[in-house]
Please model this.
Amino acid sequence: MALIVQKFGGTSVGTIEKIAAVAKRVIERQQEGNRMIVVLSAMAGETDRLIGMANSIQRIPDLREMDMLISSGEQVSVALFAMAVKAASYDAVSLLGDQVAIRTDQKHTRARIGSIGAERIQAYLDQGKIVTVAGFQGVTDQGDITTLGRGGSDTTAVALAAALKADACEIFTDVEGVFTTDPGVCSKARKIDYISYDEMLELASLGAKVLDIRAVSMAKRFKVPVHVRSTFTNTIGTWVVDEEKIMESMLVSGITYSKKEARITVKKVPDQPGTAAKIFLPISDAGILVDMIIQNTHDGGLTDMTFTVPKSDYDRAMDILNKVAVEIQAEEVTGDQEIAKVSIVGVGMRNHSGIASTMFQIMSKEGINMMMVSTSEIKVSVVIAEKYTELAVRALHDAFALDKNNMPQEVD
Amino acid sequence: MALIVQKFGGTSVGTIEKIAAVAKRVIERQQEGNRMIVVLSAMAGETDRLIGMANSIQRIPDLREMDMLISSGEQVSVALFAMAVKAASYDAVSLLGDQVAIRTDQKHTRARIGSIGAERIQAYLDQGKIVTVAGFQGVTDQGDITTLGRGGSDTTAVALAAALKADACEIFTDVEGVFTTDPGVCSKARKIDYISYDEMLELASLGAKVLDIRAVSMAKRFKVPVHVRSTFTNTIGTWVVDEEKIMESMLVSGITYSKKEARITVKKVPDQPGTAAKIFLPISDAGILVDMIIQNTHDGGLTDMTFTVPKSDYDRAMDILNKVAVEIQAEEVTGDQEIAKVSIVGVGMRNHSGIASTMFQIMSKEGINMMMVSTSEIKVSVVIAEKYTELAVRALHDAFALDKNNMPQEVD
Model:
């Protein structure tokens, strides 16, 4: 008998009817001869409702109490789900994070899982029960409730799959799987059958919302086969697996884009030790995440520092940097919010040179200026003017023939 | 420093604004030099909302899952309350039943408290925190969440007061205290300053909704002084205390009535051993609670069995009894739903005869026929036609001079 962990998000359990539908689906899977663990999020809208109440009571809500509050959402989901299974004359039992013994650190609202107790779940599975576990939550050694941050239910599911050595972890979502790019932008976007953990990590960190990045990271560490699939159909989705299990890797697996960043340049900074720290320390102290950083050296011992920050932090970052600029005698600080980051991802890049240059050729052919470039072992990202985003995505998708599931075409 | 347990019900914490108001009130009490434990119910309407969802998923919801579900309501209240205290720049911490270690038996939805851990609360109190505890809930030795049944938050408060040897347990409600009778029926109804546990027990079991009967029973057992008072004012309410602490007991402390029962008579039953069992066993097997029972013997070895059941169970009871009647060769089964039970309660009755006869005289004077009579050491109940309820209550209130807080007047 296979052991399968399934995770359903808030929209999948958003109403009584949907919970009943999920229960039916899980029961069918069990009746095919599987042992079932089901991780659920709070019903759609519930977490936001609770956070809204918290915010109207305390401007910056206490984090321990916030976890106490919002963890109640998943508690409701799992109880109703277990009832739905029982209403269909099958057996189920619900468990909270502390009942499973999902131990975390004490970082409330963004806790990390330290260990998971398998005994209680195992015992219930042995009794033939469908075990449903509240996602997103854990408990500290002191017995305080913690939550894992947004997307935390994915992490709960993968962690349970790892702890119980499940045969698969199925993440149900409102799309059919991981696509070569956003189907809303490129009509030729194709569902990917297999993708490696590393590729999925890059895609998730580049803004593909289908799977939480911490979940992917944990799946990679414990080699948990993850199956991203649709709540609404029975078709096979995308398997996120170990690289070695994918027979033939694509050079490029997917193309992502993000319009959520802004670009800032601190111009003509004295090029001497300590300058970068003076710029980036106050930024990181303010909790602002810097993504790409590029340094261009001028003549005369001066340099330009260009980097990207989230658009939502742009105004704060500019305020800080205008003060810093005076202090370090920079010429000026300029910014641009109308940019986009387009990235190509693929483990095939490791063994093939020329992927980046192919990308640059296509951008050039389409007349799109690249403002910044950043590369990793399996990724190339370029920053371009926001208005060219869709054009760039479609051109790259065609050039790398992602709709065809084979080798890239030549670009002249 | 005194230790005070305060309990606020669902309407007192029904909105964000009300929660903030309760927090303010508790903080003031703490600042007067008290250590504070606050027990809260779920926000008004929340428990019913959750039960509604459960009922629409499973016709008869699984009791363990029901407890998992509805205990989330109090979790939300205590988290928001702790935030409200912190928003006012004081310190608070919320605890669930299992975090306190409120251990119960395994009778889901109507569990009984076995023990309470005081250590964690004590430690938080020592740190100057206001400790808020989710009412209504506990945990089994196996780690399953249980609830204590409707009114369970009262029990939580009294149990905590007992375990931590609190100086007082204050139960906040939407009325000013315990009244000599329903002020809606008798305009002369007077708030009682002190009432004994036994009297309160009778009043609670007779339908006075101000305090849960199990809470009173526990308060009596552990001699916890309970103060029933208004959420909306600062006036002194009613102290429920040990009989010995009340200087001078009233002969009659209060008058209650209930329109929730119906009367059934099984006529001309053979008066022989085992007949009563044949009548009442199927009734109790059906989960129907029988209150008063009266047996009248006829000539010729026949007897009438008259008793009361909740109106809501009347139809079911009649169905059962019509079948039983055939079996035991009773003449017929008659019923009357238009009845009321009016009761007088007072520990003073113990040492004074004639209270019952005074009551009967008054009923006779008002021309009210008594269908059934039942007495206990500190209570006399009569069943009368429903239409005379208010008349009887007012006449008894006058006759025993309950508005005057002194001895009863003579009745001619």
User: Anything to note?
Assistant: The first strand of chain B starts at residue 2 and ends at 8. Confidence is low (pLDDT under 50) at residues 406-412 of chain B. Residues 63-87 of chain B form the longest helix (25 residues).
